[in-house]
């Protein structure tokens, strides 16, 4: 890399006479480190805010407060909303609308407004500067390294359409999918009957269970997939040939820390989902007797 600065970390000793250059060197050292960190680890672009609002027919646009990083790693901060007049252009050479890019750029210290203070022996100097970025309308062919906030088209000194934000580039890394898989313990999976209503005599659709996924630590609602693990074989209460009880699972009421799973059990024949196996008594005991648990997968994007 060719943009690695030569850094001198200031050091002090007891009794040292400190000058303005010594103290400024501390600020310069940390600023150069910050800029190096930002341009090498994060790149340039918009970090947050700096939205541009303007509709067709408007003669001004408004830029909201925000933060960006330029190609040198320097922080660009706009601390309050700022309106900007649309360029006073009637039309292009052929009567068409004219395109402009709205850019934001870092301003060097010597161009910032400074607060001066008198010192000893008639000295005078800046004690702080207000960081302010430069907002400008630029020709799309000559924007250089400035950060593009949006594009507009102008006709008759006003916007001929809404602000185009497609050219904005984010300095934040793309979020990778977060994938987490888990499985409930059969002994603690609390299955219940899935019925048509709260009436205990209402029709039985199948089985249901609420699955706790808090161990994954999802920040948003992920896409869940789930399956029921365990034997599907069931023996008639009075003896006879075994049958299979199985159905279709569906995830509902998904949240970052849980979801509900229902298993629909359609009526079958003597071998699969026979009527005697879909009774309340058999289904209530089935998950425990067969050691049913829920294996699940969550994908957060």
Walk me through the topology.
Layout: H1 20-42, E1 45-49, E2 52-53, E3 60-63, E4 66-69, E5 75-78, E6 82-85, E7 98-105, E8 114-118, E9 124-129, E10 134-138, E11 147-155, E12 158-159, E13 178-183, E14 192-195, E15 204-212, E16 223-229, E17 233-234, E18 243-244, E19 248-255, E20 258-264, H2 280-289, E21 293-300
Characterise this structure:
The structure is a single chain. The radius of gyration is 33 Å and the shape is elongated. It starts with 19 loop residues before the first helix and ends with a strand. It contains two helices and 21 strands. It is mainly beta. The model has no long low-confidence stretch (mean pLDDT about 90). The strands form seven sheets. A four-stranded antiparallel sheet has the order 10-7-11-12, with no helix packed on it. A four-stranded antiparallel sheet has the order 14-15-20-19, with helices on one face.
Can I get a quick summary?
Helix content is 11%, strand content 37%. It is built from two helices and 21 strands. The protein has helices spanning 20-42, 280-289; strands at residues 45-49, 52-53, 60-63, 66-69, 75-78, 82-85, 98-105, 114-118, 124-129, 134-138, 147-155, 158-159, 178-183, 192-195, 204-212, 223-229, 233-234, 243-244, 248-255, 258-264, 293-300.
Strand content: 35-45%
The dominant shape is elongated
User: What's the helix-strand series?
Assistant: HEEEEEEEEEEEEEEEEEEEEHE
> In terms of structural class, how would the helical and strand content be classed?
mainly beta
The total of beta strands comes to 21
